[in-house]
Amino acid sequence: VAKTSLTSPPWPEVKLPDPVEEAKYHAEVVQKVNEMIAAGQYGRLFAVVHFASKQWKITSEDLIMMDNVLEAECGDRIRMEKVLLVGADDFTLIGRPLLGKDLVRVEATVIEKTESWPKINMRFRKRRNYQKKKIIMNPQTVLRINTIEIFPCLS
Amino acid sequence: MVFLSAPRWLRSRLTDRFWRVQEVLKYARHFRGRKNRCYKLAVRSVHRAFVKATKARRQKKRILRALWITRIGAASLEHGLKYSAFISNLMKSQVELNRKVIADLAIYEPKTFKSLAALAHRRRQEGFLAALGDGKEPEGIFSRIVHHY
Predict the structure, then answer these.
(1) Interface size, chain A vs chain B, as Cβ–Cβ contacts under 8 Å
(2) Could you tell me the CA-to-CA distances from B3 to B6, B11, B143 in Å, in that order?
(3) Chain A residue whose CA is closest to B102
């Protein structure tokens, strides 16, 4: 039968690869990455961590400043548990949405707890004799990321 | 005796006018023109500057988010995806990265961003296949279309 404009649908045909072959390929890749992690063939690791209701992209020897109080003394070591992504030069581990705690370990130390610079909050309405001025100083905490470690327990 | 001229000498006088004026002028030193020197002009400018700073602190969040979205859209176009397809498929694959971090990855970790784009692309194809269904007609329907083979 001749091909007209309505023989095939106007959207491009989508073909997914064979599931059996794909499973084999996935297992191979996972095994290779496991070997690489076990052998330690990665350079600097970076991680995306969810901390203090914000997401941070961090590496080791990084400084982080949070705009709130942390209930830990200066010099305490902290382990950050909500890791969303870990990457090195050759591979990335993407969590859906989080990575397991037995896979990554991110350690940080509390360095200083200060107040922010005095921010001025001012409201003014012209010709109405209305003005208010308030000086706000938020407490801040500075953390230093010590290490990011990964362990070869992929499956 | 009542000394009547003593209260005339001992009236209260403002002694720290200089410092009160400096408190306002210190915020105006980097302004342009006479409003960085003259108090009357500086007071108005400094108040307007404070109010603008207060409002800008709320707008900064909106502006930065728009910037991240533009950057993510540009980076995903390099990999053949639009911003809407990229973000929607990433969310459907349960990857909860926010726009700030994805924009940083697009700038500093191009390989990671490419893998995220590939993940979104694959999820998009799977979505298309799931929407198309089996390709068979539903049961109980008597079709009058005659198929010529």
Answers:
(1) 66
(2) 6, 14, 119
(3) A57
Q: At what angle do helices B110-132 and B99-108 cross, to 10 degrees?
A: 120
What are the domain boundaries of chain A?
19-150
* DSSP codes joined into one string, B86-128: HHHHHHHTT----HHHHHHHHHH-HHHHHHHHHHHHHHHHHHH
Q: Does A1 touch chain B (CB under 8 A)?
A: yes
SS3 content of chain A, % helix, strand, coil (to 5): 15, 45, 45
* Interface mutation vs chain B, best among A33, A48, A136, most B CBs within 10 Å: A48
Q: Sort out which chain B residues have CB atoms less than 8 A from A92's CB and list them.
A: 109, 111-112, 115
A72-106 tens-digit pLDDT = 999 999 999 999 999 999 999 999 899 999 999 99
Residue type, B9: W
Q: Taking the model in full, what pTM does it have?
A: 0.88
Portion 62-91 of B in contact with A at CB < 8 A: none
Q: In the prediction, which pLDDT does B7 show?
A: 67
- Cβ atoms B54, A123 nearer than 8 A: yes
